[in-house]
Amino acid sequence: MTIALMQLQLIMPKAGARALQAYPFLADAMEEHDIGFGPRAAGFLATLAAESEELLYVAELWGPEQVPVQKTYSYRDWE
Fold this sequence. Notes:
The protein is an all-alpha fold and 79 residues long. It is built from 3 helices and no strands. The protein is globular and about 40 Å long. The relative contact order is 0.17.
């Protein structure tokens, strides 16, 4: 069982259309990693909402100076 889109929109009301865009990827990842409901899902979604400003940011934000290891990080976005 995975999270429903309506639940995601209730958890992250400021996400708007970004929730719709992210939903299939998020639901698949939660299912793949056995993050169903309850405390584990609540913790995961709360962290995701806080760290991404409710899906506003999908890439890591760095300060004005990067340390060398940060230049080796790669990520993909779903836009």
